[in-house]
Amino acid sequence: MNKPSTSTSLKLGGIQIDNLSFEEAVAQIIAIAREHCSKYVVTPNADHIVRLQTDPKFQAVYQGASLIVADGMPVVWASKWLGNPLPERITGADLLPHLCKEAALVGLSVYFLGAAEGVAEIAATKLTAAYPTLKVAGWYSPPFGFEKDSQECQRIVNQINQCSPDLIFVGLGSPKQEYWIADNRHLLKTGVLLGIGASIGFAAGTEKRAPQWMQKFGLEWLHRLLQDPRRLAIRYLKDVQFFVIVYRTWRGQYHD
Q1: Could you tell me if residue 138 is left (phi over 0), alpha (psi between -120 and 50 degrees) or otherwise beta?
Q2: Closest by alpha carbon to 154, among 178, 186, 187, 120?
């Protein structure tokens, strides 16, 4: 019987997830941003792990990431079962305000890409009210289907390059945001890109996050499902495969 890996990273579903606390992840992202080059961070949840099994493009996204930190509670639970426990989940919704706080302290600038028209501006206003020294380089809400328009994508790249932000929060939903980041990162002069889903809306107050007790018990998915059942029901049914992947990983560790 083989022993589980003693590596600091968790091996699951074909990727290695960095074993970091929330504060350690924030510190590493800030450190990367201070290098003033274009890199990106991904935050896997159960849906990402399932998608990685059959989607070569998504696999390529993960291969190019500078940091991989666990978003979903099922990933954290799986890490404990696999003998390499992750200390906590690290969500985009939590990273956004904390990174803005740290950016304000060290003089880094931020940019918001995504959310509905006007929402990013509201988020920027609220975040600068909370952290008065925060430098907001800009924001943009792209039109529906923009990712298929090469000219529109180039306009976004040009706008980001013109204001040279240090942190770029991309809230386009998954996997669109991850694809866009990987496809365009090499065109950007600087900035750490993070796919953060609905977090711009959370920061603006236009979208409501699950209550703390649901977050604590890993039920944030249920809150999202109740809000948008038609879009998410099929996705969550597919995500049942995640537990099969975890079981196979466990079998591979202990029964090879």
Answers
A1: left
A2: 187
- Strand 191-195 and strand 38-42: the pairing is parallel
Output the CA–CA distances (angstroms, integers) from residue 159 to 71, 153, 162, in the order listed.
29, 10, 5
**3-state class (DSSP) for residue 183:** helix
CB-neighbour burial class of residue 87 (10 A; exposed 0-12, middle 13-18, buried 19+): middle
Structure confidence at residue 233 (pLDDT): 61
SS3 48: helix
Question: Hey, which residues does 194 pair with through a beta bridge?
Answer: 41, 169
- For 201-243, the pLDDT digits (tens) are 999 999 887 677 777 767 676 666 567 776 666 666 676 899 9
Do residues 38 and 76 touch, judged by C-beta distance below 8 A?
A: no
Q: Where are the beta strands (DSSP E) in 120-230?
A: 135-140, 167-171, 191-195
User: Which residues, other chains included, contact 204 with Cβ-Cβ below 8 Å and sequence gap of 6+?
Assistant: 115, 119, 120, 122, 123, 126
Beta strand pairing call for 15-18 and 9-12: antiparallel
Note whether 166 and 111 are within 8 A (CB).
no
Unique residue bearing structure tokens 């694809």: 179
